[in-house]
Design a protein that fits this description.
The structure is a single chain. By secondary structure, the chain is mainly beta. The strands form six sheets. It has a 22-stranded antiparallel beta barrel. Strands 1-8-9-5-6 form a five-stranded mixed beta sheet. A hairpin with a 2-residue loop joins strand 11 (about 180-190) and strand 12 (about 195-205). It is globular. The N and C termini lie far apart (about 70 Å).
């Protein structure tokens, strides 16, 4: 019998009894009730929500180097973002998604309500420029009925707020190690009922490793127009142009002795990915009456990509269109106030690709050269989510949340290569999946809340995982199903100087989906058993000192987990009882922030990441590592309207040698050794200047 959950529960009540208080990642939070969860379909706050939710504000984002979210998200207990390169990112929450080969899977992601997750379940957030983000909300685990199949959780990115009654222009430039240059230009306009902003960003880097140069240009447009006192129309659009070379993973010898080296076949082929991507969405919100509110949006994603790899060249494009709508109703049942939200989200993806031979080996030193086409296919995927959420204020202190979601996911695959010989479409659906949720929170005082919740989530296999080596669909493959149990405490005190959160969770997953590697570029999916994800998350922020001249605060976050395969048999291999692959068993972060009234700021962040298994057998582990990041900035105003900021910083100040990402269960073909490792950047520096002008 697993005694860990009972041990965790005992600690929780002991902590609560003695009045220990914990915190959320936004350090300027002064009252829990004032922090509204924007992504929730009903009116929800951190005070009464029976779920582990983290809100990251703009001040937290400004403490990073401004290029990628890794250092920001890795402060969140329970979340681990691996960064093999600026274009090679994998996020896991509570161990879910850790065994993905390359990208982020089993986690839903949105930007201003527009899905960044495909119908197949792969999410990309690294293309969203940090300058355009105003805040981030992270729901850990399947704790949101209204957002579909996010077994690991949901990440919501929200655009910067447009200042009212202002016209402002901003320009910034950052230089850093390894040829890093980032430029940003933005204009914000807010006048009466019309608001708009435009942001242009250009990020380029030579990279620490061979064959790792990166060049990304992006343009983001945002607009809001009030139709009347009760209606508002909004628009968000983002265009991204990327060309990023790929160094890929390397073996242990190269990782230890020559970490700047690229994998030899990727270096010889000069492999890279390039694409043009458009994301667009139009939303409408109408206050129908004092009790009824309607929110509706339509969105579209378009991507045209080209990726030369050593084993072939991929030429592909995708088009997606979708719709999301919710109808909210507020009233009372007897003396019990309640709010309900009924809604739907659906999306339809059309993805087509062609594969060409890569002739780089026959014509050395020229990089990738396209040869004959040998495959052309079209894939269509769709999902439909329907949700009902009802929240009840049973008393001033007791709050009940209930939710039910219904999902259908289907896809088809058509072979277009042999067009002269018609081949019937392969089609499959995962049937109907119901996902219930219930949560209860109780506020002993206005500053102390305890909660418990139970929820169900799921994750569907990708089309590639459902295909057999013969190109047939494995109709026996099932979605992963997870039941999540959570118990937590949210509290603050000492005149709002100290805020704490403590969470215990247990997620039990069945139909565990395993990507079995059959060739360098080929995987097949199998349901191989079950896994258990049990852990404790802790977060505390403390304002040490505040005077008329300066403010000093500190934070600490940690997670301790026990992630194992309960019942995992893959062929003749029995991995039952082994530690879950590619996720550390412990992480903690500590830091301090100093700011003065004359515009000087100092941010320090120290993190420790534990060792993690490289394979399901647990025969090899990474080394634990530590990172220290420092940043200073100085802000002042010239001519009353020109705000100027100078900043400088260092990442990995201790020059740690570490694996920033790993390829789980890597296989060495022929005489080659397995390539598990993506080396992290050594010590690197950056500095920048920004100018903001407020037009009168």
């Amino acid at each position: 019998m697993n005694k860990k959950p009972y041990f965790f529960i005992g600690i929780l009540f002991m902590v609560f009894h003695h009045g220990v208080i914990l915190s959320q990642i936004t350090k300027d939070t002064t009252a829990l009730a004032a922090v509204t969860i924007v992504a929730s379909p009903t009116a929800a706050t951190l005070q009464n929500t029976a779920a582990s939710i983290v809100v990251i504000n703009r001040k937290e984002l400004d403490k990073s180097d401004g290029t990628i979210l890794t250092s920001v998200l890795n402060k969140v207990p329970g979340l681990y973002m691996q960064q093999g390169a600026l274009n090679t990112v994998k996020i896991s929450i509570r161990g879910i998604g850790s065994r993905s080969q390359y990208g982020t899977q089993k986690i839903k992601a949105y930007f201003e309500g527009i899905p960044l997750t495909t119908a197949e379940g792969e999410s990309t957030i690294e293309d969203v420029d940090l300058e355009t983000i105003g805040s981030i909300e992270i729901i850990k685990g399947p704790n949101s009925s209204s957002f579909g199949s996010g077994l690991g959780g949901v990440i919501h990115l929200f655009a910067r707020e447009i200042p009212a009654e202002e016209l402002q222009g901003k320009s910034s430039r950052t230089y850093g190690s390894f040829g890093l240059v980032k430029q940003n230009f933005s204009v914000d306009y807010g006048k009466s009922s019309t608001m708009g902003s435009v942001n242009y960003s250009h990020l380029e880097s030579d990279g620490f490793r061979q064959n790792s140069s990166y060049d990304r240009k992006s343009l983001t447009l945002q607009a809001k127009q009030k139709i009347n006192t009760k209606g508002e129309l909004s628009f968000i659009g983002m265009y991204t142009q990327l060309k990023a070379y790929i160094p890929s993973s390397i073996n242990e010898d190269d990782f230890n002795n020559n970490p700047e080296k690229a994998a030899s076949n990727w270096a010889q082929s000069q492999g890279y990915e390039s694409y043009n991507k458009w994301i667009m969405g139009v939303g409408y919100r109408q206050q129908l009456s004092s009790k009824w509110t309607l929110k509706t949006s339509v969105f579209s994603n378009i991507k045209k990509a080209y990726e030369p790899r050593p084993f072939n060249i991929l030429d592909d494009e995708s088009n997606s269109i979708g719709f999301r709508s919710s109808l909210n109703y507020k009233n009372t049942i007897g003396s019990v106030p309640f709010e309900t939200s009924l809604g739907t989200e659906m999306a339809f993806d059309d993805y087509s690709f062609s594969l060409f031979e890569n002739l780089y080996a026959s014509q050395p030193n020229q990089g990738s050269i396209a040869g004959a086409k040998f495959s052309k296919k079209q894939q269509k995927s769709s999902y439909q989510n329907y949700f009902l959420q009802m929240d009840f204020s049973l008393s001033e202190k007791l709050h009940l949340e209930t939710g039910l979601a219904f999902n259908t996911t289907r896809y088809s695959l058509r072979d277009l290569f042999a067009e002269a010989v018609p081949i019937p479409d392969l089609a499959y659906t995962f049937g109907k999946i119901w996902s219930p949720r219930a949560g209860l929170s109780y506020s002993f005082t206005k500053t102390k809340t305890i909660y418990a919740s139970i929820s169900k989530g799921f994750s569907t296999p990708s089309v590639a995982e459902t295909l057999t080596p013969e190109g047939q669909i494995n109709t026996n493959l099932k979605p992963e199903i997870g039941w999540n149990y959570e118990l937590g405490l949210k509290a603050h005190g000492l005149n709002n100087k100290l805020y704490t959160e403590l969470t215990f969770f247990s997620t039990q997953i069945t139909n565990l989906l395993v990507a079995r590697r059959t060739a360098e570029d080929q995987y097949i999916g199998i349901n191989a058993g079950a896994s258990s994800h049990t852990g404790m998350e802790f977060l505390v922020n403390y304002q040490i000192l505040q005077t008329s001249q300066y403010q000093l605060s500190t934070y600490f976050s940690a997670v301790v987990n026990h992630f194992t395969f309960n019942d995992f048999v893959d062929g003749v291999n029995d991995y039952s009882g082994n530690q879950l692959t590619a996720v550390p068993d412990a992480q903690w972060n500590v830091g301090a922030d100093l700011s003065t009234t004359n515009g000087f700021k100092l941010h320090t962040a120290f993190s420790k990441v534990g060792a993690m298994p490289l394979n399901d057998l647990n025969s090899k582990y990474t080394q634990a590592y530590s990172l220290l990041d420092l940043k200073t900035s100085y802000t002042f105003t010239l001519l009353k309207s020109l705000k100027t900021e100078f900043s400088t910083g260092v990442n990995n100040a201790l020059n740690s040698h570490y694996a920033a990402s790993i390829l789980p269960n890597a296989v060495g073909f022929g005489q080659a050794k397995p390539r598990y490792y993506y080396p992290g950047n050594p010590r690197n520096y950056y500095g920048g200047i920004s100018l903001s002008y407020l037009f009168k």
